Structures are given as structure tokens and as C-alpha cells.
Amino acid sequence: MKTGSRKFLGLPTTRLGWWAGGLAVIFIVLFILISNSTLFFSGFLNKIFGFTAGVFGLTAMIQQGERSWFVWLAILCGLFVVLVMFGEILAPR
Length: 93
What we know:
This protein is mainly α. The chain contains three helices and no strands. The longest helix is centred in the middle third of the chain and has 22 residues, at 43-64.
């Protein structure tokens, strides 16, 4: 297994990096479809996709040295989900 890419514009070189990026893409597509009421899907399950993408991305970055934009996207998705969850806890509807 490779130790990871050092290029930001390149694609991930580790398996964990690809998983993080794939989950981030799933999260983004489902988020857009749920927001437009095109798809009636569990928002909680979508948040799990986003959070897992962020955890996988952070793990790939710290342990395997992955630096791809795909992994950064996954980390941003995870951060977004964490901030939304804190917002729901601090100021519920």
C-alpha cells in the first residue's frame, strides 16, 4: 500500500481516501436531492454518510498522509454535519 499522495490536485492513492471521497459524493448528492424535496430519504442516514466521510478523510490524512482534494472535500462534509448537529442541539426548532 502506498503511503499517500502529496499533491492536492491529484486523486487519492489510498483505499481509505477513496472511501472518504465516495461517501462525500454520496452525501452531497443526497443532500441536494433531499433539500429540493426530490427524494424522500432519511436525513439522519444522510448525516451518517457525511460524518463517516469526514472521519475516514481525517484518518486517511493523519495516518496515511493523504492530501488529495477529494479527501479535503470529505473532511468538509464531516465538519458541516458536525456543525449542523451542534446547531440542532443548541437551537432546536
